[in-house]
C-alpha cells in the first residue's frame, strides 16, 4: 500500500512536470494575476531540526554570497534610477566668465549666469528602451538575490544533514571498532587452543583495521562539515552543532507542489528578465541609427566690464533646438545594433535552456526523493530485524546456548545495518532538500 501511494504521487507530479514542459520551447507568459494561497511553512522545518531552523534565521545576514548578491541588486537599482531619469528634462545652474580684447585697446570681460534646461526628445525610443532595460536588469538582480538564498539554504541544510549523519556514523563505527577488537582477541584466544584457524585471526585483524579506517574517514568528514558551516556563516571557528534528532520527511511534504513554483524559480525568472532586457537593449541600439532631437532653454543675467560693448538688457533668455543624425560612422552603430540583437538571441536561448534544465532537475529530484524514501524505509525495517536478531543471539549467549563468537558477529552485522540505515536516511534527506531547491524554494 505504501509503495502504491509513492507511485501515485510520482505519477501525479511527473504528469504536472510534463504538462509544464510544453511551455519550455518558448518563454512562459508570466501573468501578474495569481491565486493567493496561505503561506506554507519553510520546507526545512519538515526536517524537525531546531539547530537548522536557527541557522536558517541568521543565514541571510551572515552569508557572503547573499550579501554580494544584495550589493549587486543595489547597484542595479541605482543604475535603473539613473537610466529612468534620462526620460525627463535636465535643469542646471550655469555660470560663465570671459576676458579678452576686441582689436582695440579696450579689454572686455563678461559674466553670465542662469538656469540651463536641456531635453532630448525620444523620437525613436533610445532613452525609453535603455531605461526599460535597466529596470528589467534591476528586477533580474532581485531574482539573483532570491536564487543565491535558494542555493545557500540548500547547501546549509545538506551540510547539517551531512554533519548529523557523520556524527551518527562515528558513534556506530566506534562501537564497531570495539566489537572487531573483541572479535580479534577472541579469535586469537581460540587459535591458541587450536579451536580456530590462523586465517580467522588475520581476517579479524583486517576487519579491525578496516573499521578503524572508516572511523577516521567519518571523523574527517565530520570536521569538513564544520569547516563548511563556518564558511556558509562567515565564521572563523569550526561550527559543531549540538546533538539533536532529525526526521526524514515523508512524501506528503511535497503534495502541495504546483506549476507556478517551478515557473517562479529564481534562476528561471532571472533568465526570463535577462532576455527581456536584452530585447530592450537591441531596440535601443537600433534606435541609435536614427536622428536625435535636443531642445534647450536658458534664463539668466549677464554683465560686461566694457562700456563700448553693447549687451542685451537683463534678464536674458534663449531657446534652442538641435538635430543630430548619423551620417558616416564606418559601421559602428550598425555593428552595435547587430551585436545587441545577437545578445538578445543568446539571452532567449539561455532562458529556454534554463527552463528545460529546471524541468529535468525537478523530474530527477522527484525520482531520487521517492527512491530515497523507499530505500530508507527498507533500511529501517532491515535494521529492526537485525537488531532483534542480535538481541536474540546475545540472550542465547548469556544463557550458554550460543557462543560469544556468534554473538559478536551478530552485533557487528547489526552495526553494519545501522550504518546502512544512516547512509540511506542521509540520501533521502538530501534528495528532499534537492527537490525543494529545484522547485525554487
Describe this structure in words.
- This protein is an alpha+beta fold and 441 residues long.
- The protein has a domain at 2-20 and 40-90 and 140-289 and 355-438: Outer membrane efflux proteins (OEP) (Up-down Bundle), CATH 1.20.1600.10.
- It has helices spanning 2-21, 50-62, 64-85, 126-192, 198-232, 259-263, 266-287, 332-398, 404-438; strands at residues 90-101, 107-121, 292-304, 316-324.
- It has a 4-stranded antiparallel β-sheet, with no helix packed on it.
- The longest helix is centred in the middle third of the chain and has 67 residues, at 126-192.
- Residues 1-36 have low confidence and may be disordered.
List keywords for this structure.
alpha+beta; Outer membrane efflux proteins (OEP); 4 strands; 441 residues; 4-stranded antiparallel β-sheet; disordered N terminus
Amino acid at each position: 500500500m505504501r509503495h502504491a501511494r509513492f507511485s501515485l504521487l510520482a505519477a501525479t507530479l511527473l504528469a504536472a512536470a510534463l504538462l509544464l514542459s510544453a511551455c519550455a520551447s518558448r518563454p512562459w507568459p508570466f501573468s501578474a494575476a495569481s491565486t493567493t494561497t496561505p503561506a506554507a511553512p519553510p520546507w526545512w522545518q519538515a526536517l524537525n531540526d531546531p539547530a537548522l531552523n536557527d541557522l536558517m534565521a541568521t543565514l541571510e545576514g551572515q552569508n557572503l554570497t547573499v550579501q554580494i548578491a544584495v550589493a549587486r541588486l543595489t547597484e542595479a537599482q541605482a543604475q535603473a534610477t539613473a537610466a529612468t531619469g534620462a526620460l525627463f528634462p535636465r535643469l542646471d545652474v550655469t555660470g560663465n566668465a570671459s576676458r579678452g580684447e576686441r582689436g582695440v585697446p579696450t579689454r572686455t570681460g563678461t559674466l553670465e549666469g542662469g538656469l540651463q534646461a536641456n531635453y532630448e526628445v525620444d523620437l525613436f525610443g533610445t532613452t525609453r528602451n535603455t531605461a526599460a532595460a535597466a529596470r528589467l536588469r534591476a528586477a533580474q538582480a532581485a531574482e539573483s538575490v532570491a536564487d543565491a538564498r535558494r542555493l545557500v539554504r540548500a547547501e546549509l541544510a545538506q551540510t547539517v544533514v551531512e554533519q548529523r549523519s557523520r556524527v551518527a556514523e562515528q558513534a556506530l563505527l566506534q562501537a564497531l571498532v570495539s566489537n572487531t577488537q573483541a572479535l580479534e582477541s577472541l579469535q586469537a584466544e581460540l587459535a591458541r587452543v587450536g579451536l580456530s584457524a590462523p586465517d580467522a585471526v588475520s581476517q579479524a585483524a583486517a576487519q579491525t583495521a578496516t573499521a578503524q579506517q572508516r572511523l577516521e574517514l567519518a571523523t574527517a568528514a565530520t570536521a569538513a562539515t564544520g569547516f563548511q558551516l563556518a564558511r556558509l556563516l562567515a565564521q572563523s571557528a569550526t561550527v559543531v552543532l549540538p546533538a539533536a534528532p532529525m526526521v526524514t520527511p515523508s512524501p506528503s511534504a511535497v503534495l502541495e507542489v504546483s506549476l507556478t513554483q517551478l515557473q517562479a524559480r529564481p534562476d528561471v525568472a532571472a533568465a526570463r528578465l535577462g532576455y527581456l532586457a536584452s530585447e530592450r537593449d537591441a531596440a535601443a541600439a537600433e534606435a541609435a541609427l536614427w536622428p536625435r532631437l535636443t531642445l534647450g532653454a536658458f534664463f539668466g543675467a549677464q554683465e560686461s566690464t566694457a562700456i563700448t560693448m553693447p549687451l542685451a538688457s537683463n534678464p536674458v533668455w534663449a531657446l534652442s533646438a538641435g538635430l543630430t543624425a548619423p551620417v558616416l560612422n564606418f559601421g559602428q552603430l550598425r555593428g552595435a545594433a547587430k551585436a545587441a540583437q545577437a545578445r538578445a538571441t543568446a539571452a532567449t536561448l539561455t532562458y529556454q535552456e534554463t527552463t528545460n534544465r529546471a524541468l529535468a532537475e525537478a523530474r530527477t529530484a522527484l525520482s531520487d526523493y521517492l527512491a530515497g524514501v523507499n530505500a530508507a524505509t527498507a533500511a529501517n525495517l532491515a535494521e529492526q530485524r537485525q537488531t532483534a536478531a542480535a538481541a536474540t543471539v546475545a540472550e542465547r549467549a548469556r544463557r550458554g546456548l550460543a557462543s560469544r563468537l556468534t554473538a559478536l558477529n551478530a552485533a557487528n552485522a547489526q552495526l553494519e545495518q545501522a550504518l546502512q540505515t544512516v547512509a540511506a536516511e542521509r540520501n533521502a534527506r538530501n534528495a528532499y532538500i534537492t527537490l525543494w531547491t529545484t522547485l525554487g524554494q
